C-alpha cells in the first residue's frame, strides 16, 4: 500500500485505547524490520526519521526506502519526520512524500513557537500531510539538542488546548517527564497530566522517549492516553549489539548478508515486542 497519513490510525488508537509504535529507521534494513514486525502482528505502524538521519541520507532517499517497504505491505504504514527544526527540511519532506511531520519549536518562546508551527501546518494541510507539534520540553539528547532531565518542562492541559487551537496541529507531543536516549536517572513521569490531557483534549497524544521504560510503565502510559510512542534508541542498541554479538561468536564469517540477517531477525523480534505491549497488535 502507499504510505498513509497517520491521523486515521492515531484517532483509531485514541478511540480504541491503544498506541501506535513510531520507530526510527536508519537504513533499509531497519525500515524493512519495522514493516516486517508490523506485518507479523497485523499492526498499523509509523516509520520515522531523525534530523541526523535526514542530514546523512536526505529526505528523498528516506522517503523512497519507506515507500518501497510499505508498497508491498498489507498493513498501514506512515512516514513521519521526527523533531523537524528546519523549515526548509520540513517543506522538502512534505514535497517528497512524508505523510506527517513534527515541528519542534520548543526552543522558541510560546508565541513564536505558535507562529512557526502554524506556518508548517498550512503547508502540510495543502499536501494532505499531518503535523505533530510540541510544547513543553522533552529531556535527553535528540541529535545535538541536550536537555537535562531536571530542565524538562511539563505540559499543562490548558496550554496544550490553547496550542492546538491556535496552531491546528493534528497531534501533540506531551512533555510528561519521559526523555530521549537512555535514562540517566529514574524518570519522574507525570502520568496524571497525561490522563488529564486525554480527558480534556480531543486529539491524539504522543510520548517521546519510549526506550528504557519498563513494559509495565509503557502499559501505564498507553492506558493513560498515549496514542503514539516513539522508540529510537532501542533500535540502535539492538542493531549494534546483535551485530557485535554475532561477529564475536563468528569471527570467521564474511558473508555479510548472513551477519545482517541476524541483526534483522533480532530487530523484528524487539519491535514486535513493543507492538504487542502498545496494544496495536491486530489493529491493522
Ligand atoms: Zn522526541
Describe this structure in words.
The protein has an eight-stranded parallel β-barrel, surrounded by eleven helices. The protein has a two-stranded antiparallel sheet with strand order 6-7. It is α/β, with parallel strands linked by helices. It starts with 6 loop residues before the first helix and ends in a 6-residue tail after the last helix. The protein contains eleven helices and ten strands. It has helices spanning 7-16, 28-40, 51-57, 59-71, 87-96, 110-126, 157-167, 191-200, 215-224, 233-249, 256-278, and strands at residues 20-24, 45-49, 77-84, 100-103, 130-134, 140-142, 145-147, 171-173, 205-207, 226-231. The radius of gyration is 18 Å and the shape is globular. The mean pLDDT is 92. The longest helix is centred in the last third of the chain and has 23 residues, at 256-278. The structure holds zinc ion. Residues 83, 138, 142, 180, 208, 230 line the site of zinc ion.
